[in-house]
Amino acid sequence: MIKIEIVDDLIEPFLSHDGRLEQGSELMFNGRVRSMENDQKIIALEYEQYEGMAESELKMIAQEVSQKYPITDLFCKHRIGTVKVGETSLHVVIWSKHRKEGLDSMTFFLGELKKRVPIWKWAILQNGTKIPSDCTHS
Amino acid sequence: MIKIKLKCFSQVKYAMGQDEMVIEMKIGSTTSDLERIVRQRSEGKLEHIDLSIAINKKYVKDEVALNDGDEVALIPPVQGG
Prior knowledge:
The structure holds 2 protein chains of 2 kinds.
Chain A: E1 2-7, E2 25-32, E3 36-37, E4 40-49, H1 53-68, E5 71-79, E6 81-84, E7 88-96, H2 99-116, E8 119-125, E9 130-132
Parallel strand pairs in A: 1-5
Antiparallel strand pairs in A: 2-7, 3-4, 4-6, 4-8, 5-7, 8-9
Helix pairs in contact in A: 1-2
Chain B: E1 2-7, H1 10-16, E2 20-25, H2 31-41, E3 52-55, E4 58-60, E5 71-75
Parallel strand pairs in B: 1-5
Antiparallel strand pairs in B: 1-2, 3-4, 3-5
């Protein structure tokens, strides 16, 4: 199953539970906002999305992942709006039978997300100035 | 003439100073024509920035003819995550 959500408030993690008897691997990734941007201290990042397209691209990538790797479920939440330093901006959980496909599919999913999903960051500096973030790490 | 709704994000918004604008173009104009207009209007602020193109919220790879009423985004490098 694929579940994609774009949220504008604190991310509530997907539940980890013991009822999954066939999946030996539950892999979780949390992307968090760092305190430094280009050697400047920031107080938050503001995430901007292309509404409609960001969610549909995420779904498309998740479907590609499920076709390419034998995973059971991929759940993803991406936050938009203001995300303070230390808070989670991206939360992904992938369940699979074995760890290898979990790890490989997570790497692929995150890599494609960073290439294709129309979401951008604006850095909010300590003096309140908002500038486009330079961060485009793959 | 055709009217194109241009959506601006990140560096494109920064360069154009607007979230959205309507651009009138000749019938038969293409995505390359639109990109040229936007780069000219940005007065160099989009120099060295690669732009992908989405028409009606779907990426297009090659040069495509635009239609009246299309919503087009010139997408600077994305930064999700």
